[in-house]
Amino acid sequence: MISEQIKSIQESLPEGVRLIAVSKFHPNEAILEAYKAGQRLFGENHVQELIAKHESLPSDIKWHFIGHLQTNKVKYIAPFVSLIHGIDTPKLLKVVDKEGAKAGRVIPCLLQIHIATEETKFGFSREECLEMLSSGIVSELHHVQICGLMGMATNTDDEAQIREEFHTLHALFEELKASYFKDVSTFKELSMGMSDDYPIAIEEGSTLIRVGTKIFGERDYSKK
Ligand SMILES: *Cc1c(COP(=O)(O)O)cnc(C)c1O
Predict the structure, then answer these.
(1) CA distance 22 to 24
(2) What is the pLDDT of residues 124-178, one digit of tens each?
(3) How many angstroms does the Cα of residue 12 sit away from the middle of ligand 1?
(4) Mutate-to-test residue for ligand 1 from 22, 24, 66, 114, highest number of ligand atoms within 8 A of CB
(5) Residues 6+ apart with CB under 8 A from 88
């Protein structure tokens, strides 16, 4: 049961960790069931699907965009998105800033860091991230706010490896918090952990876990 899963995960969370219910590929009825159980943060990774759900579901839902975001689609979500987790290039950050300006708001964002061994995953390397921050572009952008980092661990059964990857991401987060984001109180989120690895992520300092399957069951990709 969706509502029971929401409640049991919510009750297990330590203070300072928030649950994002990843509702991609699941219908509005499933989302409403989670909503009725008190869930308000939801994550989606396709722009069209996110727009359709935003338009048809309660307006106090906070929508997080958790997937790979194409620059030409930013404009569609800029007016309402609560947090964009997957900023993975300086170009995307600039486009989000431009669309934030058009929408008359400051858009909260996370920088995605590539911590997994798989090549297929997106994100800045540590070096690319440091390079972008030292280039100074962030201070020129007034319609984005970098609130922290996001990462995905390797899809493996090796718990030690997963822990090590989350640990590395947390260390980079602390390093940036003590340097580029010193005195920036809004730099405080570390988005890591999914259905299979969120307990490890929490132990390693996550503040936002992104959980789909464990709440809603398997996704039915054939419907899309
Ligand atoms: C789909 C997805 C999740 C949720 O994955 P589950 O294994 O179903 O919990 C989390 N983060 C991102 C970026 C995703 O695309």
Answers:
(1) 6
(2) 999 999 999 999 999 999 999 999 999 999 999 999 999 999 999 999 999 999 9
(3) 19
(4) 22
(5) 68, 111, 112, 122, 123, 124
